[in-house]
Design goal:
single chain, mainly beta, two-stranded antiparallel ribbon, about 0% helix, about 30% strand
Length: about 50
C-alpha cells in the first residue's frame, strides 16, 4: 500500500502492509500492520466489525 492507494490519494513516502485474519467463526479479527516512513499516528483508521 502506498499514498496512491489512500482515499483521497496522498503524496507520501510512507508504505505499509496489513494482514487481517479471522477466527473459525469470523467473530474476531486479528490485524497486523507494518509501516515505514509513517509520520503520524493512525488516527481515523479504526474500524468496528458488526
Amino acid at each position: 500500500m502506498n499514498g496512491g492507494n489512500e482515499v483521497p490519494c496522498r503524496t507520501t513516502d510512507a508504505i505499509g502492509v496489513t494482514t487481517v485474519t479471522f477466527n473459525d467463526t469470523y467473530s474476531e479479527a486479528t490485524v497486523n500492520m507494518t509501516v515505514a516512513n509513517f509520520l503520524h499516528w493512525l488516527s481515523g483508521c479504526s474500524h468496528t466489525l458488526r
